[in-house]
Amino acid sequence: MSSSILRRTGAIASITLALSFGLAACGDDDSDSGSTGTDGSSAPAAAGENFGAGCAAVPTEGPGSFNGMATAQVATAASSNPVLSTLVAAVKAADLVDTLNSAEALTVFAPADSAFAKIPSKTLNGLIADVPALTKVLQHHVIAGKIAPADLAGEHETLAGDKITVVGSGEDFTVDGATVKSKVVCGNVQTANATVYIIDTVLTD
User: Fold this and answer.
1) Radius of gyration for the alpha carbons in the chain, expressed in angstroms and rounded
2) C-alpha neighbours within 13 Å on the C-beta side of residue 88
3) Maximal C-alpha separation, the chain
4) Which of 89, 77, 82 is nearest to 189 (CA)?
């Protein structure tokens, strides 16, 4: 058995485990990293003005926290965040870690574990086994340049060479693929070379 097959098998196993335990990792963390003011309004996080209910699942301390992610390149930062474990396994399977980490500036729409859990396991495992198709799907979630929330709405070209449209304003954004719509659940997460928007549905189209 070749080393490439072993690596791919390991990646599929990682995704299977992530699908099994990813939701628990999000749901069992009672920390509220999206801090609020005394009036109940959202307050800026130290690493950027993070927003969205999904930010509560991000660790408050350590490498996977907002502060921790801000000091690491995007793929490395995501690997420390339990909310993004399935995405990280997919990125490794597609051999995109170095590509993402070496980019000067990116905007990444990062599906949470709960987003991958919406995909039937047979379909997901088939996608993981098809590296060209997986690579295209992952690149469909990435835009060149760091885009701030104020500039997020509009049509953007992805690294896959196609388009996605973001609608909304303030702290309420939806990302539209060809047939799939995904909600931004935790926005404006900063890493050393990317701005990340965590979304609730994988943009497969």
Assistant:
1) 16
2) 19
3) 60
4) 77
DSSP state of 189: E
Task: With H, G, I as helix, E, B as strand and everything else as coil, classify residue 110.
Answer: strand
Nearest 5°: CA angle at 96, between 137 and 109? 50
List of domains in the chain: 3-199 (2.30.180.10)
* CA–CA gap between residue 79 and residue 83 (Å, rounded): 9
The yes-or-no verdict on residue 39 having pLDDT over 90 is no
Task: Report d(CA 166, CA 114) in Å as an integer.
Answer: 20
Burial class (CB in 10 A: 0-12, 13-18, 19+), 174: middle
How large is the angle between the packed helices 131-139 and 121-129, nearest 10 degrees?
100
| φ, ψ (nearest 5 deg) of residue 189 | -80, 125
CA–CA distance, 184 with 188 (Å, rounded to integer): 10
Do residues 90 and 113 make contact, with C-beta atoms less than 8 angstroms apart?
Answer: no
pLDDT at site 199: 98
Residues 91 and 75: their CA atoms lie apart, in Å, by 8
% of the chain surpassing 90 pLDDT = 72
* Position with higher pLDDT, 123 vs 4: 123
The alpha carbon of residue 149 and the mean position of all alpha carbons in its chain are separated, in whole angstroms, by 16
